[in-house]
Amino acid sequence: xxxxxxxxxxxxxxxxxxxxxxxxxxxxxxxxxxxxxxxxxxxxxxxxxxxxxxxxxxxxxxxxxxxxxxxxxxxxxxxxxxxxxxxxxxxxxxxxxxxxxxxxxxxxxxxxxxxxxxxxxxxxxxxxxxxxxxxxxxxxxxxxxxxxxxxxxxxxxxxxxxxxxxxxxxxxxxxxxxxx
Length: 180
Fold this sequence. Notes:
two-stranded antiparallel sheet; disordered C terminus; single chain
């Protein structure tokens, strides 16, 4: 039974370690005009594809405030989802057979192999950000950059269900665990 558990543990590690190691999110910004930037966000892995839009919103808000503007709108925005190969789980089967008799020997050996691709989810967002000052009439229906930063937390502030460092997980019988 322990041998099966060891093989199962190794298989799970082989499947999920490449996905987790391949996890990241990145945002690139390219200025197009004094009040216009292009923002491209790419993410992959199990944890980050759901953070693509919030990170794009934060990047647009930060770019707006950094240039002295207060509001922004998106133009030519697009979203995409997919997957990428992050590893291969290989398997081999070897069969051997031998016969010995009357001073002669014969044998058959067969080896076959295969593999399973390990894929990680990906997501992307791209948008042209047009920035406005607060008193500009075009800012009336635009995003307020300060409000966006308050609404979308920084990526490092997200815990993905993992207790913060130094916190204690408190469990009371009959209730779900809570962080103290």
